[in-house]
Amino acid sequence: MKMEQSWKDQLFEAINYTGLSLVAAVMFLPFIYIVLISFATEQEVLAKSFMLVPTAFSLTGYKYIFSTPVLLHSLGVTIGITVIGTLVNLLLTVLMAYPLARKDLYGHRIVMLLIVFTMVFNAGIVPTFLIVKGLHLTNSYWSLILPTAISAFNLIIIRNFFMSLPDGLEESAKMDGCNDVGVLFRIVLPLSMPAIATFGLFYAVGHWNTFLSAILYMNDSSKWPIQVLLRQIVILSEKGLADMSEAPPPPSKIINMAVIVVSTLPILSVYPFLQKHFAKGVLVGSVKG
Amino acid sequence: MHFVEDKLSVSRAELVSGRTRIRLRIYKDRWLYLMLLPGLLYFLIFKYVPMWGLLLAFKDYQPFLGFFGSKWVGLKHFQRLFHDPVFWMLLKNTLILAGYNILFFFPAPIALALLLNEARNEKFKRFVQTVIYVPHFVSWVVVVGIAYTFFTVDGGLVNEAIAAFGGQKINFLVSADWFRTMITSEVIWKETGWGTIIFLAALAGVDPQLYEAARMDGAGRLRQLWHVTLPAIRSTIVILFILRLGTFLDTGFEQIFLMLNAMNREVGEVFDTYVYTAGITQGQFSFSTTVGLFKSLVGFLLIIGSNRLAKKFGEEGVY
């Protein structure tokens, strides 16, 4: 009886590990494949239709895409709105979350209600579009930053995080002559760095991946962030990178893969540094909330 | 008489002192209110002012007349909405995609979390977790781009493999038959790993003694999974399922917009994409606002309803 059990358990174990490895492979190998093909040589891509792993290494794709000013510019736009946008996000979210975490603040209930209401009911894209247009923000980089300046969801989780900090902090800081702004920036924020870093990453990913705002508000193609250019090149197969360079363009397969890599790698390279914080960061708020 | 007046004046005095007390509290917390101000302005300008814009659904919006100058037309756009075959197509497509989502995507993170929880090797487990979170951080443009490079007819890995094994190439990307399968698979690929976080947290809270007891009773790994682990996360599953119902109509704009083309529009156009195409690109502001308002109202009712349901199941609900 006991023997049979452990035999069954061993089988279970084997199936489980195989299954998990398969899932992980399906989710991760596409990235590896794309990176590999982006370094393939022209000759090989043209000669073979079916290729899992290229046998020779070349930088043709990358040389080509960086020789056109379009991609660099677009990458610059994305880096700019990611950095500035994330700073704006964090500043506004923290400034709002902290007062709301103070349960003795007169009127905090009504403000919370107003915030939660925007999570369940929203005006939709046409009225929002008309407001952004009315404020003359179209074709301005601010249209990619201001309309998403605060995420109600992140705000609530950060507020819950602040509420979980010990109560005595404020009072003792105030005894030492700090006002509320001082308490937030000198006492509360330094204690909240893991949470701030986590939400900074979430906001940054949002900006890096911004697509909808850009197609809504940016008519001027010279101001496109990288995601819009990426769609132009990979999905619509348009000549997004107008032939600026003298060399003839390599096969579109190599170009596509190289553009995907360039538009993904920067944001993914931040991830390992924050990975250990974020699962905890997410749960702190959501489980308690 | 005198007595009554006395009482009145006392309560008035109390009222006044109550008011000054509030004023004092507000003065004491003036820095906090100052900090609150930018955020309040944000919600006012970008969330509440647009709600006024919803009145466009009851007007014939003319850009040169502006919001206030445009004529009121009552329920004209709503009548058009329910008589328009486009509306019924949108409703059908949205409901089918939402149904696919609940049926195939919803259980995926639960299954994966259960498997992960059974992995005893901590290093392996952590490695798999790290890897499966990655797709969540990639944009929809990249996901759809990857799908294009894998599934395209000319030179896509999947079709080349089909051809290499002697099969017929399938035009996955511009076929109405494959559209829903592609959409749902992409969602599963991108979000399943991330979705495990909440279930793994719930699983971490299971009392190890329960497993001990089950093992004493002679339960193997599978039986422990069935009788101990699954019941332990049942309440999390129930609440997430109910909340999911609340956002039933949200099929997500970007993914569907990116996957749409002339060949699959018939099955792929949903409320979100139609509002964009009709409203922003074709300038039918009023009618597409009506479509959007319909969707927001139904969504609102679904959220209220599902939250009630969650509370009925003894859960806290979202608000």
TrEMBL record, chain A:
<dbReference type="Pfam" id="PF00528">
    <property type="entry name" value="BPD_transp_1"/>
</dbReference>
<keyword id="KW-0472">Membrane</keyword>
<feature type="transmembrane region" description="Helical">
    <location>
        <begin position="46"/>
        <end position="65"/>
    </location>
</feature>
<keyword id="KW-1003">Cell membrane</keyword>
<feature type="transmembrane region" description="Helical">
    <location>
        <begin position="20"/>
        <end position="39"/>
    </location>
</feature>
<dbReference type="GO" id="GO:0005886">
    <property type="term" value="C:plasma membrane"/>
</dbReference>
<keyword id="KW-0813">Transport</keyword>
<feature type="domain" description="ABC transmembrane type-1">
    <location>
        <begin position="75"/>
        <end position="272"/>
    </location>
</feature>
<keyword id="KW-1133">Transmembrane helix</keyword>
<feature type="transmembrane region" description="Helical">
    <location>
        <begin position="110"/>
        <end position="132"/>
    </location>
</feature>
<comment type="similarity">
    <text>Belongs to the binding-protein-dependent transport system permease family.</text>
</comment>
<keyword id="KW-0812">Transmembrane</keyword>
<feature type="transmembrane region" description="Helical">
    <location>
        <begin position="144"/>
        <end position="162"/>
    </location>
</feature>
<feature type="transmembrane region" description="Helical">
    <location>
        <begin position="254"/>
        <end position="274"/>
    </location>
</feature>
<dbReference type="InterPro" id="IPR000515">
    <property type="entry name" value="MetI-like"/>
</dbReference>
<dbReference type="GO" id="GO:0055085">
    <property type="term" value="P:transmembrane transport"/>
</dbReference>
<dbReference type="InterPro" id="IPR035906">
    <property type="entry name" value="MetI-like_sf"/>
</dbReference>
<feature type="transmembrane region" description="Helical">
    <location>
        <begin position="71"/>
        <end position="98"/>
    </location>
</feature>
<feature type="transmembrane region" description="Helical">
    <location>
        <begin position="183"/>
        <end position="205"/>
    </location>
</feature>
<protein>
    <submittedName>
        <fullName>Carbohydrate ABC transporter permease</fullName>
    </submittedName>
</protein>
TrEMBL record, chain B:
<feature type="transmembrane region" description="Helical">
    <location>
        <begin position="285"/>
        <end position="304"/>
    </location>
</feature>
<feature type="transmembrane region" description="Helical">
    <location>
        <begin position="127"/>
        <end position="151"/>
    </location>
</feature>
<feature type="domain" description="ABC transmembrane type-1">
    <location>
        <begin position="91"/>
        <end position="306"/>
    </location>
</feature>
<feature type="transmembrane region" description="Helical">
    <location>
        <begin position="95"/>
        <end position="115"/>
    </location>
</feature>
<keyword id="KW-0813">Transport</keyword>
<dbReference type="GO" id="GO:0005886">
    <property type="term" value="C:plasma membrane"/>
</dbReference>
<dbReference type="InterPro" id="IPR035906">
    <property type="entry name" value="MetI-like_sf"/>
</dbReference>
<keyword id="KW-0472">Membrane</keyword>
<feature type="transmembrane region" description="Helical">
    <location>
        <begin position="31"/>
        <end position="49"/>
    </location>
</feature>
<dbReference type="Pfam" id="PF00528">
    <property type="entry name" value="BPD_transp_1"/>
</dbReference>
<feature type="transmembrane region" description="Helical">
    <location>
        <begin position="192"/>
        <end position="211"/>
    </location>
</feature>
<feature type="transmembrane region" description="Helical">
    <location>
        <begin position="232"/>
        <end position="249"/>
    </location>
</feature>
<keyword id="KW-0812">Transmembrane</keyword>
<comment type="similarity">
    <text>Belongs to the binding-protein-dependent transport system permease family.</text>
</comment>
<dbReference type="InterPro" id="IPR000515">
    <property type="entry name" value="MetI-like"/>
</dbReference>
<dbReference type="GO" id="GO:0055085">
    <property type="term" value="P:transmembrane transport"/>
</dbReference>
<protein>
    <submittedName>
        <fullName>Sugar ABC transporter permease</fullName>
    </submittedName>
</protein>
<keyword id="KW-1133">Transmembrane helix</keyword>
